[in-house]
Design brief:
By secondary structure, this protein is of the alpha+beta class. About 35% of the residues lie in helices and about 25% in strands. A six-stranded antiparallel sheet has the order 4-5-3-2-1-6.
Length: about 150
């Protein structure tokens, strides 16, 4: 299955016009518009791909509490792209999700990542500007919205 993951990554690279390859740990990291990075990692025991991004540092105080509430509300929507959480290790807002590798293609991954990137950018911007207006689910199918770099 690791070969299948590598094949999907190469298909994704062809779609976004970048030579994407797995690193020594079998992961791929994409830098999105120099704003944040997204890591793709295959979990062979569960036959799925983990897609994760640290978005920004969580601020202290009342805003942090309100941010948690908004994250919980967003995580409640089904279906959703990406689950919001807090990394206690580095005090960062995290967006992550899993995709089953069965039936996954580079194009399906590109389509998923486009929406994932948009959601990540909306939340990163909301936290950094301190404005938590209700953030709705993003539903764009334009894979060229973000400049990817390995």
């Amino acid at each position: 299955m690791m070969d299948r993951f590598e094949e999907i990554v190469k298909e994704l690279g062809a779609i976004v016009n970048l030579p994407l390859h797995l690193d020594k740990q079998g992961r791929v990291r994409l830098n999105v518009n120099q704003l944040f990075s997204v890591q793709l990692e295959f979990e062979p025991d569960k036959e799925r791909i983990l897609i994760a991004s640290f978005l920004c540092e969580m601020p202290p105080g009342k805003f942090r509490e309100n941010l948690f509430k908004e994250c919980l509300k967003t995580n409640f929507f089904v279906p959703t792209i990406g689950i919001l959480g807090l990394s206690q290790r580095n005090n960062q807002l995290v967006l992550f999700d899993y995709l089953p590798i069965q039936k996954l293609t580079g194009q399906k991954l590109a389509d998923f990542l486009t929406i994932f990137f948009q959601k990540a950018d909306l939340w990163r911007t909301a936290v950094q500007t301190g404005v938590l207006t209700p953030i709705t689910q993003v539903k764009s199918q334009n894979p060229s919205l973000f400049d990817l770099k390995p």
